[in-house]
Amino acid sequence: MSNLDIWTYAIVGTTFALYIGIAIWARAATTGEFYVAGKGVHPVANGMATAADWMSAASFISMAGLIAFEGYGASVFLMGWTGGYVLLALLLAPYLRKFGKFTVPEFIGDRYYSQTARIVAVICLILASITYVIGQMKGIGVAFSRFLETSYEMGLYIGMGIVAVYAVLGGMKGITYTQIAQYVVLIFAYTIPAIFISLALTGVPLPQIGLGGNYAPGDGTVTLLGKLDQVVTDLGFREYTTAVMGSSLNMFVYTLSLMIGTAGLPHVIIRFFTVPKVADARYSAGWALVFIAILYTTAPAVGAMARLNLIDTIQVGEVGSPEGNLLYEERPEWFKKWETTGLLQFEDKNDDGRIQYYDDTNEAFAEKAETFGWKGNEMVKVDRDIMVLANPEIAGLPNWVIALVVAGGLAAALSTAAGLLLAISSAISHDLLKGVFMKGISEKSELRAGRISMVGAILVAGYLGLNPPGFAAGTVAIAFGLAASSIFPALMMGIFMKKMNNAGAIAGMLSGISVTLLYVFQHKGIFFVPGTSFLMPELGMGPDWFFGISPNAFGAVGALVNFIVAFAVAKVTAPPPEHIQHLVEDVRVPRGSADAVADH
Amino acid sequence: MTPENRAAYWKSNLRLLAVLLIIWFVVSYGLGIILVEPLNAFHLGGYPLGFWFAQQGSIYVFLVLIFVYAVSMNRLDKKFDVDEQ
User: Which of A175, A334, A470, B52 is most buried, judging by how many CB atoms fall within 10 Å of its CB?
Assistant: First the structure.
């Protein structure tokens, strides 16, 4: 066993023992504790737990990798996944806390005085959450496959087992305290290597400043971003600081979709039911964003510096010179290890024994490359999701830092998977069984049903995770689109439009999520099953046919459809009864907030 | 609490929301996406300015917005006497 293996087992083992210890210590005994941690959580602690819950494999493992390869275009993730907290804090959190219920469908069912609305909300919630868990499974699979040096599939199976044991035992109370520990682990794991690398490349320890600093290994006059722009364009790639994702319109809609989705995702909203007061709910969202921003403002530096280091490793000399590219025989250890996972693949197209990595889809540059004797990009697969995990190795950091990053990635994926599974299980056991189909169910049976539905959700997500519809962050973006197009508009209209009625809300949710699902399935396959996509280029429905908007970004369009349909239907149907309008007035005022009650 | 008082409280709330959401929109969509190209002509240290807003600045502004909201709303609650006791 190598020194790195020992470090990895030690750190991953210790952190896991810590999480499990906390989960057992804070084990949920009542449904109240299982769903909302019994309401006794301080806003700062709650903010930290929310941050861990929120920052998933997509944020930790995947996002910086996407930033590394997309450059400016990946800003959609940075703005989208933080700006949503503004919407959440201003438009939803305090009101939902005042309303004082356990779950999001419960609010929708009561506000729209309709069991149908509640069931529709449950379905939307499950669709969004399962898609989200698929993204986590991809991240967990990548982390375990590298850590145990096995295939991605095997890594995924092991990850499923661990998530199952961990989430099913705990419930919300256990999850909240464990998530605080996980936040601490993941934020150290993310920032420590970033500080090391920033120091090496710019001489500035703070990555947020370093990214705007000068490139130190050069003569110190060129900026880091300037250097990066030059290095990537020399190899035919698009300029780092200006490369857009799709188009400006696509980026606009993508960002909007992620923001609205953030404010519509049940496992995040549920967090604001766990604080003692309405005033605390407002601060809680702010604290959550403080803890999230530490990672999100570091990520751009991690991405940019990883890209620079990766290219430096492969393109060791002048572009086009005979000795300019790394010999495959001399590839570093990390390269070999990632090759065993299948997530990094090399193919010597021109049989020169050296690695050529460049953009062969850029026609002008591909022609020039041919004059060097290059026959195409030989890094045939560089899975974006490996970048954060590989980054410290590429930069040659000490083994304990590399081990820490693996532990951090697992903490991020586990904490979010647990939060999502909890949202799914509460939707099934609390909303569907207790709320609609089996009203007399005992508290004990309700808890058992919750745990069984968690296991079911893990199996489905794991199976679909074998063929994920994209990189972890892309898959998660689809989940946000689904939440954006269904749940957010229903919640917002429920608070801000006294006259919104049951028919309007139901029609809105159904039409919003339907258009989004159709567009996503058309591109990615029905329920992401490969080979079932149904793009119709002959009818003008090629990839991204709707104004060049990508399926990952489509949630904002779905949300717009939701709002329009809801308005139209509400106009021609009966307004909500008097007592519902009073309810809305009451939700708008903080005074008189009480603890959430399970029965109503 | 009188209905007039309630309406006035809600109106002040909506006004605050409008101001904060306009800033939210301008910083992210305006400076980070729509105006990014002209802004990139300026620099903040080694950052092109539009790029900085998209990858750093907007996040800092979001943070400030939420805390400003929380403080102003808690003050508003007290003024209209609707805070939790």
Answer: A175
